[in-house]
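Hey,
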Amino acid sequence: MKKKHRFRKWIFSLLVILLLLAGALFFVVEKAYGKLNYVPADGYTGESMRSDGAVNILLIGNDSRGDGEDGRSDAMILFSISDKTKSVQMISLLRDMYVEIPGHDGNRLNAAYAYGGPALLMQTVEENLGIEVHRYVQVNFEAFANLVDAVGGVELELTKEELEYVNGFLWEYNILTERPEGTDYMDTSAGGMVRLNGPQALAYSRNRFIGTDFARTERQRKVMTEVMKRLPMALVKSPRELIDGLMPNLTTNLTVTECFLLCLEAGKLPVYGPESGSVPKAGTYRDANIRGMAVLEVDFDENRRWLAESIYGK
């Protein structure tokens, strides 16, 4: 009886500790949440964040230099945590895909954002790619740069030519942010492993002149993969810098409770491991010209099958 009593007491103490930790985490999440911009998406209020064993969030990188939905959807990445396939995926959606946009003529994918913001973009993704995505997080230039700085920068291998383009895009960024000319310029004498700070990583991710847009989106995923690896330590070492630098530049329809649940999901990252890719897949598209637009004409049936297998295990 004494052993059983001690065991029950131990279980009770453990539950109390877990509840206290959960309460503390919720307090931190709630405080951080108060700094971001909550903007609901028409038609998605009340829809569950999780669908068929997966959480799908559309990350929208727009070229706005401030708050709001101004600017274009410069990058679109489907972030998926799937219990079905035990995977965490970052899947770039190419902006030049020719898609059917509800209520509009067919156009490039990023035109959906221009016509109707995140809500229409999510609806367009759902109807063309056959996956459910009810949540979005919109990130502007400043948020991206601040996020990389908050995790202490990222280490990547760059060619000499890529370094030169980093400096080229930094020239524009420095003008826009009123920084002295030459700020954060990199040594272009030789390529190799380098550490990029926030503005440098942003400049690297925007490079659309080396390779096709597939190469540009691959650079974006490389940066985000490195950020994800460093994020847990950054949350421990410099939470204030992360919150103050990132949150005011985020716009989302995630609720505070959903953000708390996502923090709990973070424990799956080391187990599931990150995977990345892009849509359309190789061999499932062709270059085309439609109504004077250079676009990617896509085999959507094949890409739907790949996404269903990758995310839902179907």
